[in-house]
Each structure stands twice: as C-alpha cells, then as structure tokens.
Design goal:
single chain, 509 residues, alpha+beta, four-stranded antiparallel β-sheet, 14 helices, 14 strands
Length: 509
C-alpha cells in the first residue's frame, strides 16, 4: 500500500473519529440500557390486563343492532367490543374499503367508528371527560389522575403505529411508578403507558440510541437520512481505523518501547482496543444501519396474501349473530374483549381474557367452535397463486418465528404455538405462519425479511435462540462486547478532543 493511501486512511480515520466517536460511545452505552429497558409501549397483553371485565348480564346490543343504530353499514375490516373508551362497553368498527357510516365519516386517520354498546350512539369527539374516564378504567379505583392536555408527539410517542391516534391526550397518574398514560384522540382508548423508570432510562437508552433528539423538530424529515449516513460514516471510520491499526501493529518484533504498538498512554489503549473490538464495532454499526431498511433494500415486492381464501368472504354482521350476553355467558367469565372475524366462510368470535389463548366461539350460536384442520390446510394453499412448496406444523420456534421479551424492539407481539409454516414456491420465497387454533395469519416472511433477520436482528441483538435460552450467558456476552466497544469509543473521544485542542491552539497562534 502506497504512502499516500496510508496517509489518506489515517486522515479519514482521524477526522471521522473526531466527529463520530461520541456517537459510538453513546450507541454502545445506550445499547446496554436497552437490553433491560425498552422504548415505552403498550403490548396487547398489557392492554387486556388493564381492560375492565365485560359483564355477561349487561344490557349490551347485538353487534348488527348497535351498528345499524349508529348508521354503520357494509362489510367491516375489523369489529371488537371492549370497555376501552371512557370505561364503558363500546364497539370499535373499522369499515372495509369505501364502506363508511352514513352521514358521518369514520375517525380521521384511524378509520375507526366507536359505538356505545348500550345505546348504539356514536362516541365522538374525544374530550377531557372521556379521557379521564378511560384513564380511570385503566388504572382502577384509588389512583389520583391529572390531565396534562394534548400533544401531537413527544419523546415517548415517536412510533408510527400511533399516527392513527393523534393528537394524544396525556394523563399523569399518582401511582408508585408515576405512570404517564397516552389516550387516543380518535377513540379515547389508552394506547401507551410510560412509567417514570421507563422515561428516565429511555433518555440514556432508546431515545438517544435511535437518535430521537432529531425527531419532532426541524430535523424530523431528515431523521432517516441522518441515521443512515452517520452509520455509513461510522463504518468507514471503523474500517479505516482497523486497517491503520493492523498496519501499525508489529506482529514479529517490538518497537523500542518493548510494545508491539508504537503509541503510548491512551493512544495505546485505543490502538489495542481497536484491534480487539473493531470487528464487533463494525458489525453493530452495520446491523444498526440494516435496522433502518436503508433505501428499502429488504422490500421484496411480494404480492399481498389472498385473505379471502382463509376468510371465505368479508365480515358482515347480521341479525343472526348472537348478542354479547350469550357470548360472554358461554365463555365463562373473565372476558376483556370480544373480536369478530371470518374463518373458512363462518363468522367467529375470539373471546380474550386477561391472559392466555383466546376462546373461539361461533358467532351465531355462541358455542365453542373448533376450526376444521383439513379445511384450513386446504384453504391456506390458496393464499397465493403459486403452489405450496412445503407445509409443516411447528411446536417450537424456528429461526424466523420466535418470541422476544416485551420491552425489546421486536418483542411484545403474540407468537402462539403450535403454528403452521407454509412455504410457497413464489419468486420471493414466501413463508406464511398460521395459528391453527384461530385460523389467522400470525406472521409472514419472505426472502427480504429473512435477510433482514440475519443482517439486523441476529447481528445487532444476537437473538439467536440457543444463546437467548441460556441467559445470563447472552447478557454477559453482550455486556462484555459493549464495554469493549465503549472503551474503544471513549478513548477515541479523548484523543479527538486533544487533537481539536492542538488544532485550535495552532490557529490562534
């Protein structure tokens, strides 16, 4: 390698390091925090646990009757019943496609129409009284509440999944966790909770790790580009430093100092730390870049699934569908939410308790319903026009369908077992995972998503099941590697600060 090239590599590493080492240090330290405290979220399991129980003796209208009184006609994309809006039982209906309520549009953004399950009247708009009632139902009695007004977005609500609920109402609880609730401005449902511990640690964890200081302000539209290009610059800095470090290390003899490194003091620490931890630094910066799906490289263009094959037609409630009282009585109590869906040409109801697998009921006779396994398997083969390549039932998680702790970035979603994994012979090599108990598609994977799983989740979070199942081994490995990366980064910050001081003094002179 020529002297000019070596000099160029040295300068690239030096000045990119001056700019980026602080980011490196921040990413390594905040990554350790995120191992134990994630970005605030309200998981499906938490939401169910906080919903009031639906009483089987309540005078609740049948779904078709309630929707008719509210002027909601046509097929639905979704229908559920829960005491989630102002603490009273309500139907949450999402019209399918162009089907809308007569005379009044569905809630902007969300498309959800909220209907009182007792009177059949629409519940809109959301005001402070409804918000406080929802918060009271969520927390239970004996907790003082303070209404804090509305916000569009703050440090704990950058998630795009909340866009359909903005503006968000905030309610502060006087509980032991000083919990902050976020209530939908569209449906009055509690959509996020953030305890004091989560809020404090997030400023040292996910908020800073994901560069959220650039969100919700004039930099918001550039946030993706900022993260992408900082990551790319970081890879260049780490790679150039690795090459320089190897070149400067004497493998066969020592320098006059007796060391194989030519540097002294903190420079030697940085040199040796770089040789030891450069690979992990490059791997984590690269996989962090992959988490952004830069320039949509993991989008495979796979065609949408033909869900009508499983559903057998749109969700359309009729006068033959049972009233909630019959469904709740059959379910045996403790039900927090009823959710109507279609399966193999029948309308079924998933009765969700506070925990555990939902009970499946026939929507008309309200009796427990079991899906025909053979019929479901045959219907699943028609989800795509291409033939099925393989089909098997999984009783344990595989490399691409697995569960993570609720606080983690990819955790919190229900991943039931057993599950069918059906592989199709399409160009994108699509896999579909179907819950045989409910007949619903619970996950989908294709070649692009599987590459993302390797290049992001595996390399960044090390969520390899044999390692995750042997905690605290997973914790020890990641913490040691993170501390090594932090040492490399912090020494770089010190060196960069000194270099800047030298340059500034020379300019003044």
């Amino acid at each position: 390698m020529g002297m000019h090239t070596k000099r160029l590599l040295f300068l690239i590493h030096r000045w990119l390091g001056v700019v980026l080492c602080a980011f490196f240090a921040m990413w390594f330290v905040s990554g350790v925090v995120m191992m134990y405290v994630g970005y605030p979220k309200l998981t499906a399991a938490e939401r169910l646990q906080h919903l009031p129980e639906l009483a089987s003796d309540a005078a609740l209208l049948a779904p078709q009757q309630a929707l008719a009184r509210a002027g909601v006609t046509g097929p639905l994309k979704e229908l559920r019943l829960a005491a989630a809006s102002a603490g009273r039982p309500a139907y949450f209906a999402v019209p399918l496609g162009a089907a809308r309520a007569k005379g009044v549009k569905a809630a902007p953004g969300s498309g959800t129409v909220v209907v009182d399950a007792v009177s059949g009247k629409r519940i809109a708009p959301v005001d402070e009284v409804q918000v406080m009632a929802s918060a009271t139902a969520y927390t239970g009695p004996g907790v003082a509440l303070h209404y804090l007004g509305t916000i569009e977005e703050d440090a704990f609500t950058h998630s795009r999944g909340l866009d359909a609920h903005r503006p968000l109402h905030r309610v502060q609880l006087d509980d032991t966790d000083a919990t902050l609730l976020y209530v939908s401005g569209r449906t009055a449902e509690v959509v996020r909770d953030a305890s004091r511990t989560e809020r404090i640690w997030n400023y040292a964890g996910a908020w800073i790790h994901w560069l959220y200081p650039f969100r919700g302000n004039i930099f918001d539209r550039y946030w993706t580009d900022i993260v992408n290009w900082l990551s790319i610059a970081g890879i260049v800095a780490a790679l150039s430093g690795t090459i320089v470090g190897i070149q400067r290390w004497r493998f066969t003899r020592t320098y006059r100092s007796g060391s194989r490194s030519p540097y002294q003091g903190i420079m030697r620490w940085h040199h040796i730390g770089g040789l030891l931890f450069a690979l992990i630094a490059i791997t984590w910066i690269f996989s962090g870049l992959m988490s952004m799906n830069p320039w949509r490289i993991f989008d495979s263009g796979a065609a949408p699934l033909k869900m009508e094959a499983l559903e057998g037609g749109p969700l359309q409630l009729t006068g033959l569908d049972a009233a909630p009282a019959a469904l709740l009585s059959s379910a045996g109590g403790g039900i927090r939410e009823l959710r109507w869906s279609r399966s193999l040409g029948k309308t079924v109801v998933l009765a969700h308790a506070a925990a555990g697998q939902p009970l499946l009921l026939d929507s008309q006779n309200a009796q427990p319903f079991t899906i025909d396994t053979a019929a479901l398997r045959e219907a699943a083969t028609r989800l795509m026009p291409q033939p099925v390549q393989s089909s098997e039932i999984l009783s344990a998680y595989d490399l691409y369908y697995y569960s993570r702790d609720a606080h983690t970035m990819t955790g919190g979603a229900s991943k039931p077992l057993p599950v069918w994994r059906i592989a199709f012979a399409d160009a994108q090599e699509s896999w579909v995972y179907i819950d045989p108990h409910t007949g619903t598609v619970v996950a989908r994977s294709d070649r692009g998503k599987r590459w993302s799983r390797w290049l992001f989740a595996m390399l960044h979070s090390w969520d390899w099941l044999p390692l995750l199942e042997r905690r605290p081994l997973w914790d020890m490995v990641l913490i040691v590697l993170s501390l090594g990366g932090a040492l490399l980064s912090v020494t770089g910050v010190v060196i960069g600060w000194r270099r800047l001081g030298i340059k500034l003094r020379s300019v003044r002179a």
